[in-house]
Amino acid sequence: METILDIRGLTKTYPGRGSAPPVDALKNVDLTIRKGEIFALLGPNGAGKTTLIGAVCGMVRPTSGSIHAFGLDMKHDWRTMRARIGLVPQEMSVDIFEKVHRSVAYSRGLFGRKADPARIEEVLRTLSLWDKRDSQLRALSGGMKRRVLIAKALAHDPDLLFLDEPTAGVDVELRRDMWNTIDKLREQGVTVILTTHYIEEAEEMADRVGVINKGRILLVDDKDAIMGRLGRTEAEFTLSQPLASLPASLSDLPVTLENDGRTIAFRGGDGSGLGKEQVAALAQTLVRENIGYTAIDQRESSLEDIFVKLVEEEGATS
Q1: 192 part of a folded domain
Q2: Which of 313, 317, 296, 293 lies closest to 305 in space, CA to CA?
Q3: Which of 83, 117, 151, 276 has the smallest count of CB within 10 Å of its CB?
Q4: Do 176 and 210 fall within a single domain?
Q5: Cβ–Cβ < 8 Å for 161, 152
Q6: What domain range is 64 assigned to?
Q7: Which regions of 15-142 does DSSP assign to beta strands (E)?
Q8: Is residue 20 one of the residues assigned to a domain?
Q9: Phi/psi of residue 210, each to 5°?
């Protein structure tokens, strides 16, 4: 698949204030984005997500490393490159006295695109803003202002679109409209990179997922591959009678005896279905051993479980 964005060795170090040491917001980041994909970048607050987006969009000057997009080098062709990138920022930054229609149309002109009233109308209608086109931004709700930011980012028809926490604090209706818009953009060949705290959204929408923490990329892979490699199965068997110890027949399975011998807990598998097979084998063994149980509570890892584990492990080793 064609590469649309290629980042190599990207580092951003901010000088410390006073006697404080320098802060490494990005540490030798390598990242490749494929044309037409939806890529979710996950990370806790302060992980470096917004700094990375700012570097690609020309708002943050890297300390070292390279950024290439559309075959262009950021150092030499940043104006041409930036004109093909859309950004929905996390923070609101609009003229509150400007009218919706003029604000969105102005954004299109900023990137050298010819006036196209029909296109602006299409964008506003897609985001349910057409009825608010003559309203001043100050008169809009927070959710509607967020819609305007998305409209401004789409006004110049970018090939690469960044969405930095686009659904943070917005209503369910906007969230649904925005994901419908993203589906349409993907059909048109637009590449989307999003950061989000709603990991279930990334799990549902993204083709690939990257995890960043403390300025380092911890993992990048296809979503299904991550689930298969790092996912696991958990199951708890509530026993009819407590056990003093586990029978030897369970020694080959990843099980522990918990809750004063009243629960057998299974934690294993690899996200490929192996865990489910092992839980079934565990149940059969309990029946053969005449160990009764009254309930089974079983669950599979979610992307959020994997994300939390990766971040915790990174924190423990740093």
Answers
A1: yes
A2: 313
A3: 117
A4: yes
A5: no
A6: 3-84+159-227
A7: 23-34, 38-42, 64-69, 72-73, 85-88
A8: yes
A9: -120, 145
